[in-house]
Design goal:
The protein has helices at 27-39, 53-64, 99-109, 131-140, 173-183, 201-208, 239-251, 270-277, 328-337, 357-367, 398-410, 430-439, and strands at 2-3, 8-11, 18-21, 44-47, 68-71, 75-79, 93-94, 116-120, 143-147, 151-157, 165-167, 190-193, 213-216, 219-222, 232-234, 256-263, 281-283, 301-307, 315-316, 341-344, 371-375, 378-382, 390-393, 415-418. It is α/β, with parallel strands linked by helices. The chain has 2 domains: 2-25 and 236-439, UDP-n-acetylglucosamine1-carboxyvinyl-transferase, Chain; 27-234, Enolpyruvate transferase domain (UDP-n-acetylglucosamine1-carboxyvinyl-transferase, Chain, Alpha-beta prism), CATH 3.65.10.10. Bound molecules: shikimate-3-phosphate.
Length: 440
């Protein structure tokens, strides 16, 4: 592998991958830890916070809203302002590239009675819809004005909120979390009805913070809280980042890898289950789904033992999509190497990520020799037993950059990734970590 000029990096076919890798800290949990720290009144200690562009945006935003953030060598301490006392802010709050920050923070801002806040971000953020959070927050009593009714920059004016029952029109953990945050100050209970389960970190963390929160089937109900009582939050490794090494280990012949300390929360391990179904060798202790009415109090972690092996195609059904949403580009790559067809259905949400991930994954992999077709709500890949290689452009999307890198390692001719620096959004040490597995 040779680093090219600027942000262009070449990933040559790898002989084998060997050794162990520790994925970076979980991005979703880090965002939530910083936000909950800002919403608490007592200091919150965060261990293993993700030091990456997206999660730095969140810490900065909480600082702008009045939290005191102290960075130590091993931990971050956040001293928050409570649920209703965020500071007034001059000018827009910059969310950078962070969709999770942009969609969750409004839940807190809606609770700031009489104060207005504007959120804005980079060019990709300005194309991502916020009406999905504006609709329920308006119903709760907040005012929201968005560009073209739908996009950032957008302004939220807080109010005394009322509890609502809200059925999510799309399975989105971000929208669910935003409404639950707003429910913390609302008069009366707030219920989110979630047609299909999505990541449940917010529920686990709020329950751990002493909030009255219950799940009955697909209904999650929160009642208002005076304060959040959090002490220490330890962030596990990110299964979505680990997925790149897992895919590389399965695809590159003769590889054997240990992925250490990855989150094993059932709502985040859909990718591993899909891969196992395709015949991939990935062994580890994954969490089982929680029983009705239960909210697990912890985030489980596991080590995963990964080995190269042949794959067969599979069909990813709509109910599996939220459990593997950020890993679906990797499912497309696995499909290129699998026998038969790999189909992903019910994943139109991919079009609203950091890029249109249906269009760009299909174009990007096709440019590397894949037989892949886009559909309205996913893609169909015909496995050809391998991938030629070539050049792929990240379009500023971190997951596309890392997809290109893994494709290169597993390809016949290697892949040049243009815009590899995008990986810093979630995984700043990705290239070094993957390279270390080659050198052993
Ligand atoms: C996230 C939820 C998912 C995911 C995103 C992070 C979260 O988005 O794609 O990367 O932290 O809640 P949606 O909830 O919009 O599907």
């Amino acid at each position: 592998m040779t680093a090219g000029k600027g942000t262009t990096v070449r990933f040559d076919p790898a002989g084998r991958l060997k050794g162990s890798i520790v994925p970076p800290a979980d991005k979703s949990i880090s965002h939530r830890a910083a936000m909950l720290g800002g919403m608490a009144t007592e200091p919150v200690v965060i261990r293993n916070y993700l030091e990456a562009a997206d999660t730095t945006s969140t810490l900065d935003a909480m600082g702008t809203l009045g939290a005191i953030v102290q960075r130590g060598p091993d931990e971050i301490v956040v001293r928050g302002t409570g649920l209703r006392e965020s500071s007034e802010v001059d000018g827009p709050i910059d969310v950078g590239n962070a969709g999770t920050l942009m969609r969750l923070l409004p839940g807190l801002l809606a609770s700031q009675e009489g104060r207005s806040y504007t959120l804005d971000g980079d060019a990709s953020i300005r194309k991502r819809p916020v009406d999905r959070v504006a609709i329920p927050l308006r119903e709760m009593g907040a005012s929201i004005e968005a560009t073209d009714e739908r996009y950032p920059p957008f302004t939220i004016t807080g109010a005394r909120l009322r509890g609502i029952e809200y059925t999510l029109p799309v399975a989105s953990a971000q929208v669910k979390s935003c409404v639950l945050f707003a429910g913390l100050t609302a008069d009366g209970p707030t219920t989110v009805v979630e047609p299909v389960p999505s990541r449940d970190h917010t529920e686990r963390m709020l329950a751990a913070a002493g909030v009255s929160l219950h799940r009955e089937g697909d209904r999650i109900t929160v009642t208002n809280a005076d304060e959040l009582v959090l002490d220490t939050i330890t962030v596990p490794g990110d299964p979505s980042s680990a997925a790149f090494a897992i895919a590389a280990g399965v695809l590159v012949p003769k590889s054997r890898l240990l992925v250490k300390g990855s989150g094993a929360n059932w709502t985040r391990t859909g990718f591993v289950r899909i891969l196992q179904r395709m015949g991939g060798v990935v062994l580890g202790e994954l969490e089982d789904p929680a029983g009705d009415g239960q909210i697990p109090g912890v985030e489980p972690i596991t080590d995963l033992d990964v080995a190269h092996g042949s794959l067969v195609g599979t069909v990813v059904e709509p109910h599996e999509v939220p459990l593997a949403i950020d890993e679906l580009p990797l499912v497309a790559l696995l499909g290129c190497f699998a026998e038969g067809e790999t189909v992903v259905r019910g994943a139109e949400e991919l079009r609203f990520k950091e890029s249109d991930r249906i269009a760009l994954v299909v174009d990007g992999l096709r440019g590397l020799g894949a037989e892949i077709e886009a559909t309205e709500d996913g893609f169909v890949v015909t496995g050809t037993g391998g991938l030629r290689g070539g050049t792929i452009e990240s379009h500023g999307d971190h997951r596309l950059a890392m997809l290109g890198a893994v494709a290169g390692l597993a390809s016949r001719e290697g892949v040049t990734v243009v815009g590899m620096d995008a990986a810093a959004v979630s995984y700043p040490t990705f290239t070094e970590d993957i390279t270390a597995l080659l050198r052993r």
